[in-house]
Amino acid sequence: MIEMQDVWKEYANGTHALNGISVHITKGEFVYVVGPSGAGKSTFIKLMYREERPTRGHIFVNGFNIERLKNRKIPYLRRSIGVVFQDFKLLPRLTAGENVAYALEVISTPHRHIRKRVKEVMELVGLGDKLDVLPNQLSGGEQQRVAVARALVNNPSVIIADEPTGNLDPENSWGIMKLFQRINDRGTTIVMATHNKDIVNTIRKRVIAIENGKIVRDESKGMYGYDN
């Protein structure tokens, strides 16, 4: 599903974010990406959905060769994956339902299918009664559930989440994690960068730990292993 082969990433300012990373993630896995701030986690995540390109090395995501992917092909990659961010990234002037629908509208999905699919995913995330509510009328936990629904609406085979509970209180964080577990149980691969020690140590999954741009641990049902 996801493979990195000797991947390096150096930014224009000379920062070496990743130094020779190799990893293989199979279909249906749930993987935490952990490590101290500045370790390279966000770069690792961004490479998967082609927000960044590797300096060298090979990356394959859901059949796409990332480093050779032409710009016009990027939307095709992103249709097959869902991305969830820490800060939700909802469009403030659109309702919750319209935010989710937008992901289908940009790929010219028929309107009759959009209405049905949006209702399905909003019910899945527990917000079937919030379709017509604006983001600023929702709690932080509800906004993140809308963001998850938006990531799910295209039936992606992979969901990539970058600190999805970072702006949430503990109760909402656990609610979002239960939702991710249900999604994973349905067969969707999930790769999640997180600083949430309690979640990683309680909901035990594969842990990939990155320090100074290198993978220092890769453990099945691993622990967080850091104080921060």
Automatic annotation (TrEMBL):
Keywords: ATP-binding, Cell cycle, Cell division, Cell membrane, Membrane, Nucleotide-binding, Transport. PROSITE patterns: ABC_TRANSPORTER_1, ABC_TRANSPORTER_2. Pfam families: ABC_tran. One of its GO terms (cellular component) is plasma membrane. It comes from the Bacteria. GO terms for molecular function: ATP binding; ATP hydrolysis activity; transmembrane transporter activity. It is a peripheral membrane protein. The keyword Ribonucleoprotein does not apply. It is found in: Cell membrane. Gene3D superfamilies: P-loop containing nucleotide triphosphate hydrolases (3.40.50.300). GO terms for biological process: cell division. The keyword 4Fe-4S does not apply. Residues 2-227 form the ABC transporter domain. Homodimer. Forms a membrane-associated complex with FtsX. Belongs to the ABC transporter superfamily. Part of the ABC transporter FtsEX involved in cellular division. NCBIfam families: FtsE. This is Cell division ATP-binding protein FtsE. It comes from Alicyclobacillus tolerans. The lineage of its organism: Bacteria, Bacillati, Bacillota, Bacilli, Bacillales.
